[in-house]
Amino acid sequence: MLLKSLNSFTIISMFGFAFFILFFSGFLEFPSLSTTIKPIRYPTLSLTKSTPHPFTDLVTAFKEWDSHVGCPHFRENHKVSIQIANSSSSLQVSDAESECGELKMDHVSVLVKGWTWIPDNLDNLYPCACGLSCLWTKSSVLADKPDALLFETTTPPLQRRTGDPLRVYMELEAGRKRSGAEDLFISYHAKDDVQSTYAGGLFHNGRNYHVSSHKDNDTLVYWSSSRCLPQRNKLAKKLLSLLPHHSFGKCLNNVGGLDKALSFYPECTNDANVTPKWWDHLHCAMSHYKFVLAIENTVTESYVTEKLFYALDSGSVPIYFGASNVLDFVPPNSIIDGSTFSSLEELAAYVRNVANDPIAYAEYHAWRRCGVLGNYGKTRAVSLDTLPCRLCNAVSRKGGRNAGAI
After folding, report:
1. 40/136 Cα distance (integer angstroms)
2. Does residue 194 sit in helix, strand or coil?
3. What are the tens digits of pLDDT across the range 54-95?
4. Where is 109: in which H helix or E strand?
5. CA triplet 188, 189, 192: central angle to 5 degrees?
6. Residue 4 burial by CB count (10 A; 0-12/13-18/19+): exposed, middle or buried?
């Protein structure tokens, strides 16, 4: 019995020794942790095994990304996340065709009575789905018998008699405060009657849209704010102290005064014969920086404002602080969500690393170059740009002036 036990021990030892030799000689390989566990909070920096290096030309970075990664890989990598995003309830479904049977009118006129966000060039006669036509105007001459009155900066009448226009109230600020005297309520939130996101192009007409292919590698971050809210200033001051930046607004200005962007970037001049306003050259100036810091005035669900979308439109990468469901509104892998980092120091280190890795940086632009919009397509579909037809649709379904008195 003792001999049998010794033989068993010898055999086991021999197998163990053989296994040891095979493993370390490379015949047997086990996956390392680094190849099986991937970070999920933000993109992996090392998309390739090449050593990251500083860069200034965006087009060259795109070429490097194309040769090492490419659109097919990007589309495949984000297939699941796009499917999840498509099931989000943060955005209303803009599918007017499915509501054709609910329309009670084939023409609706909306008279805009008070406004802040509504640009003049939204005035038009729109052909909408289901054969509906929509007159949207600020002129009481053109809309002498409007089906709806739109109020943004003023309160609608407290009562509406039968035969009077429907009262529409619009509030795009974070509070979403209803007037208490409206038949239809427009806000940025999907839970309200009509949603209007900040992603539309009509928020920034008449601007210089020159996009620079040169990205400053010495000054990484653009920031501009002239409403110096204490909490936002505190956050911006701490983060910007960790990163080279230019601050062009009244808050934490470090460029020697206001309206200095044109002295930095004269190509951003919109009209040399007109005294420039700060927003004329906003996009053009942003485009020279790799990153734009975007901090919302108020942090609340679905309140994703022009601060973020301006940065996306300019070809920069937003560093965002704001709505917890922001990813429901933006393209896949298009922003750096500051809330996902354990500290501002960790965030700043990540930003520096991306800034010095052309492939990792180009990955943040892949959505645009590869046509992978995700929920961003829906965000644009329910923006201010499409509001006239969507509001007229809602007015038609209520019957306009024929709706019951309230």
Report:
1. 45
2. strand
3. 999 999 999 999 999 999 999 999 988 777 766 789 999 866
4. strand 107-114
5. 110
6. exposed
- Please give the pLDDT value at position 292: 98
DSSP 3-state assignment of 48? Answer: coil
- The helix/strand/coil state of 309 is helix
In order of 92, 107, 194, the CA distances from 101 in angstroms are 19, 15, 19
Query: Which tokens in the block code for residue 65?
Result: 């990304």
The amino acid at 317: V
Show the domains of the chain with their CATH numbers.
58-87+203-375 (3.40.50.2000), 100-196+384-402 (no CATH)
Residue with tokens 């052909």: 127
Distance in Å from the first CA to the final CA of the chain: 100
Rounded to whole angstroms, the Cα distance separating 377 from 355 reads: 27
Q: How far apart are CA 28 and CA 30, in angstroms?
A: 7
- Which runs of consecutive H residues, i.e. helices, occur in 172-305? 230-240, 261-264, 282-286
Query: Residue 384's CB: how many other CB atoms inside 10 A?
Result: 21
